[in-house]
Amino acid sequence: MLGAFRIAVVVPAFGEERLIARMLGRVPAYVDAIYVVDDASRDGTSAAAASVVDPRVSLVRHAENRGVGAAIVSGYRAALADGHDVLAVMAGDDQMHPDDLEPLVRAVLAGAAYAKGNRFVHADARRMPFGRRAGGAFLSAVTRAASGLAVSDTQCGFTALAATAASTLPLGELWPRYGYPNDLLLLLAARGLSVVEVPVRPIYADERSGLRAWHVVSILGVVLRRYARVARSTRISA
Ligand SMILES: Nc1nc2c(ncn2[C@@H]2O[C@H](COP(=O)(O)OP(=O)(O)OP(=O)(O)O)[C@@H](O)[C@H]2O)c(=O)[nH]1
Ligand SMILES: [Mg+2]
Which of 70, 88, 156, 219 could join 160 in a cystine, given CB atoms 3.0 to 4.6 angstroms apart? Predict the structure, then answer.
């Protein structure tokens, strides 16, 4: 709990048997519940998560791989059903520093619907691989233009969402794979919900990423698709 508020952390995990226990062991004490969503991993991700002795941890398993966005939605749904107030996301690959969670959660408690990490404004930003910085800056510029939101690190997955906002969103419609942060930002903007960014550490260490250069093109498609849908529904309701 932070103050009187119940905090949940959703942990999307696909092929994270090597890192998931280490990651779970670092979740701060004020977090009330941790939902690990094993996205049909072919390795021992579920067993590694289950081996962590922590009553806060529960495991959600997808029968087939559905993507990181779908994994997060499964976690959000479980956390909403259990009555949590703030739904944070920390990836199972241990790339998010636990000390950076509290400012994200506090931004939501202070009134933001959604708080996102921003690695580009952190002093260690140059430690991010060049391709990540270039691709992220491009996708952020496109998402900013399409949503009108003042965001500059759209691809950062370290976030906190107010349960009140989550329960108004069409979660089942969210893009299930890597474009989900962009899609979510456009959905929030279309509803006039507030988004803030908070500096977080960029961590690139011993994890393996599923992200490839071609994802920039597919994420661009996600942004354009949502932009067109929002524009169409705005025209119809005008
Ligand atoms: N690649 C991949 N990751 C998934 C999937 N479902 C859940 N995840 C988890 O989502 C998290 C983020 O995935 P990554 O591929 O590392 O993407 P990222 O961290 O945004 O990108 P990097 O900055 O390159 O590490 C990890 O904890 C994965 O285990 C999936 O279908 N594919
Ligand atoms: Mg990663």
Answer: 88
Residue 140 counted as domain residue: no
Domain that holds residue 51: 7-129+152-172+189-210
**Least distant ligand from the CA of 15:** 1
Distance of alpha carbon 88 from alpha carbon 106, whole angstroms: 11
Amino acid, single-letter form, for residue 153: D
Give a yes or no: residue 218 inside a domain. Answer: no
- In this structure, the residue with its CA closest to atom 25 of ligand 1 is 209
Does an H or E element contain 16, and which? none
Residue 206 lies in a domain: yes
CATH number at residue 113: 3.90.550.10
Rounded to whole angstroms, the Cα distance separating 218 from 226 reads: 13
One-letter amino acid at 100 equals D
Which ligand number lies closest to the CA of residue 42? 1
- Written as tens digits, the pLDDT of the chain (238 aa) is 888 999 999 999 999 999 999 999 999 999 999 999 999 999 999 999 999 999 999 999 999 999 999 999 999 999 999 999 999 999 999 999 999 999 999 999 999 999 999 999 999 998 899 988 999 999 999 999 999 999 999 999 999 999 999 999 999 999 999 999 999 999 999 999 999 999 999 999 888 888 888 889 899 999 999 999 998 888 777 6
